[in-house]
Amino acid sequence: MGASKIIITGGKLIDVEAGDIIEDSVIIIEDSRVTAAGSSNDIELPTGADIIKVDASGRTTLPGLIDAHTHLQLVPAENEHETLIKSVPLKAIQAASNAQKTLEAGFTTIRDLGAEHLVDLAVRDAINDGFIIGPSVLASGYKIAPTGADFRIYPPEVKISGQYTMDSASEIRRATRELVALGVDQIKIMTSGRTFRKTSSPDTKVYSLKEVKTAVEIAHDNGLKISAHAHGAAGVKLALEAGCDTIEHGTILDKADIEFMLENNIYLVPTFSYSSNLKRLKGDSGIPDYSINKALSSRGKRLKSFQAAYQAGVKIAMGSDSGMPFVPHGTNAIEIIEMVKAGMSNLDAIRSATIIAAGALGIEDRTGSIRPGKDADLIIVDGDPIKNIEVLSEINNIEMIIKSGEPVIKRGEYTCG
Ligand SMILES: [Zn+2]
User: Fold this and answer.
1) Boundaries of every domain in the chain
2) What does the alpha-carbon distance between residue 87 and residue 111 come to, in Å, rounded to a whole number?
3) 263, HSE (Cβ side, Cα atoms, 13 Å)
4) How many Å lie between the centroid of ligand 1 and the Cα of residue 251?
5) What is the Cα–Cα distance from 220 to 332, expressed in whole angstroms?
6) For the segment 179-188, what is each residue's pLDDT rounded down to a tens digit?
7) DSSP classification of residue 154
8) What value does the mean pLDDT take over residues 139-167?
9) Residue 192 and residue 234 in contact, taking contact as beta carbons nearer than 8 Å
10) Do residues 335 and 272 touch, judged by C-beta distance below 8 A?
11) What is 65-361's CATH number, 3.20.20.140, 3.60.21.10, 3.30.300.130, 3.30.70.360?
C-alpha cells in the first residue's frame, strides 16, 4: 500500500456528475476513498507527513474509465482453430495479461460479458486477491445462449468442451442458478444471433419470451443485472419485453423501443469498434466476406439507432467489445472516440465511459465519478479530453492511474514520484 493520503492539485477536474470542468482543482484521497474534490478555493489542503503530492498542472483528472463490454479471454488476432487447441491454463494467463493491458489504458473497471471455462471469474478473483494487477472485473461466467446462436456447430464426432448451450426454460433455469451460485456479477444472455457467424443471423431472435424471462427472473431475484446481446428488431424487442437491463449492440431500435428504454431505465451499449476497424481494413482483415458484409450492414443501422437513442436521452454506456477481431485489449478507449465520431459530445462520451457506465453496471454508488465517499478510481491525463477526445486513446497520455486509492500506473514525470 502507498501513503495514506494523496493530494492532487493544479489541474483540471472533470465532474462527470454535474457536467462541470473545474479549472484549478484539488482532490484528496485517504486510503481507498476520495475525501474531497473541487475548486482549490473551497478545499483546505491537509498538512503533515505521509502525504503524496501530485502536481497536475496542465493535466486533467477524470474518473477511472469503465468499459461495459469486454471479453478478456478472447485474443483478437487468433483464428478459431488456434483458440480451440489452446489449453485452459494458457487462456487464463492470457486473460490475466489482457486485464493488465486494460488497466494500463486507464480502465479501472470492466464488465466482462461471457467467457468460456469461467476464466473471467478466475481473473477477477486473482486481481481482487492481489496476485495480478488489473481493473475491477464484473464477471458473467459463460453466456446463456442456445445451440447455433453463438458457437460454431461441429460434427458430433468432434468433442469440444466449455461451450455450454441452453435450449429450454428448464436448461436456462439450471444454468442461471449455477452461474449465481458460482458467484457471477451479472448474467449475459443472447436474444438475437450474431453478425460474425455464417449460420447465425443478427435479425433472428434466438429464444422465446418465456425462456428469456426465466433468466431475467432468477438474475433479478438474486440482485443481479442481466445484459442482452441483441442486434435486430426481434432480439431487441424480446430483450426489452423480458426485462433485460442493458442492450448490447442495439442495431435496430425503433421509436417504441427508445420510449421503452427511457421509461424503464434500460441502457444501450452500442459497441462500434469492431465494425469501424473492419471498415478500415475490409479485404485485408482476413475475416471472411460474409462476416464483413454482415458487420458493415449492421454498422450503418446501428449508427442510426445510436443517434436516435442519444437524441432522445437514452443512457448510453461505453462498451468496446474488446477481444473481438481488431479490438485489441488496451485499445478500449477507441470506442469513446467512435462515439464522438457518431455524434456524441466529448463530455457525454466521457460520462458514457464513467458515471453512465457505472450506472449500467449498478456500481454508481462506489465509482464512476470523483466525489467524496467514493472509491478513489481516477486517471490523470496529459492534455484536455474535453477539447480533444483523442488524448484518451494514446496510452502515454494516461500519466497516472489510481485504483482504489493506489497509484497503480505512473508514466512520464510521475515515474519516480
Ligand atoms: Zn461481446
Assistant:
1) 5-63+370-414, 65-361
2) 24
3) 9
4) 13
5) 29
6) 999 999 999 9
7) P
8) 89
9) yes
10) yes
11) 3.20.20.140
